[in-house]
Specification:
Layout lengths: L4 E2 L4 E2 L14 E5 L3 H7 L4 H22 L3 E8 L7 H24 L3 E5 L7 H13 L7 E8 L1 H18 L9 H6 L11 E4 L18 E4 L9 H13 L8
Parallel strand pairs: 3-4, 3-7, 4-6, 5-6, 7-8
Antiparallel strand pairs: 1-2
The chain binds farnesyl diphosphate (FPP).
Length: 253
Amino acid sequence: MFKKLNKKKNQPNQSDFELDLHNIPEHVAIIMDGNGRWAKQRKLPRIKGHYQGTQTVKNITKVASDLGIKYLTLYAFSTENWSRPENEVNYIMSLPGTFLKTFLPELIENNVKVETIGFLEHLPNSTLNAIAKAKEDTKDNTGLKLIFAMNYGGRAEIVNSVKKIYDQLTAKGLSSDEITEQMIDEHLMTHAYPDPDLLIRTSGEQRISNFLIWQVSYSEFIFNEKLWPDFDKEELINCIKIYQSRQRRFGGL
Ligand code: FPP
């Protein structure tokens, strides 16, 4: 990686780093936070923030695809988000319908494959149909995997994994001594994906909020100050530059 020194402070400044296209994180996961605050700042209803947030999803998907990111996992709705006001929940549930429909041609053009993680069976039929159509129409695409976490919760995902393992072991008359990390991993909803290299949360909040709690054990975390609707290409590139400036040790030296 190339770096220049900030002449005034003689310190490296993030924006002075060149992006290293040979060290792009393979899997980026994002907690898209700040839609409500974005709307509040403009005296708009919260759902306007979610609408604007979906435009950011569109932009960032294109940038991620252009950069050669292979997996982009977006936290769209958590198992805890059901406690929000009904109109807000209904609006978020309508987003796959309105957004994925209009976005599909662009996704196909960019060779993006739509996938999901989460407890989909609890989603309304209209949401499920929209997701199913997006998956079907992009199933042969070989580029970026755009993974929406819908009604997703990390703890419930781990519990589910352990239950499946327990059922398999008891059916075979085996004991819990057989359980390994790899088995838990293989029974998670993310079993087909590598763990995230980089986890970004926008809006300045510094929490994990039950997102991929097993999978982020060795991910780099970046807490970005921008509200999600304001997060753009420049911010994503800056996050990747910060990622590239870090030394990943995976518990070693
Ligand atoms: C968090 O901001 C955001 C959400 C709970 C919803 C995010 C969803 C999208 C951006 C749309 C996803 C698109 C599809 C197609 C499913 P917040 O409301 O918690 O913001 P606040 O903390 O400022 O109130």
